[in-house]
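ugh ok fine here u go
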Amino acid sequence: MEDYEFEDLDLDNEWLEQLETDNKKYKDFYTEQVEKIEINYVYVDSNSNITNIKKQDFFLTDGIIKRNDLIYLIKGNQIDNNKNYDLLSLLQYNIDIKPEEIFNYLRDTDDSNFLKTLTNITDIRWKDTVMLFHDMNSLFILYYRKRKRDNKTKKVHIINKIRKKLKRKNTRKRT
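structure:
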């Protein structure tokens, strides 16, 4: 009787194959962990003009840039065209919209805030992102070149302060 039941059981796998085919169509709308980001190094001169932008792809570990890797990237790109720049700001762009919110986002993009200013140099985590938006996740490292000060004026001010102090010492009243 068991043989009879097994032969009679005609498994219809078409529905399963159809489900897999349909899922492939919507794969871009599922959220997944971010594996790669684009890092943009933006160099700003002392007149607040952007002088150069460099781009680099960076592969994340479990959706994170580790603090040591971040320091290495910042220090390794401080010099551009033989000019030294100081770190101005770190900006993280992470589109962490949920699949069910995509339609509303496309209608009204004013309500989105995916850009975040980072205040500390720590591990940076990217939240899971809809596959369609993975290429947009990025990190902006802004550098600023300070104006060089004229050392002569600084020395003159220091010398004048020293002279004033010396004059005060010599003109004290004795009691």
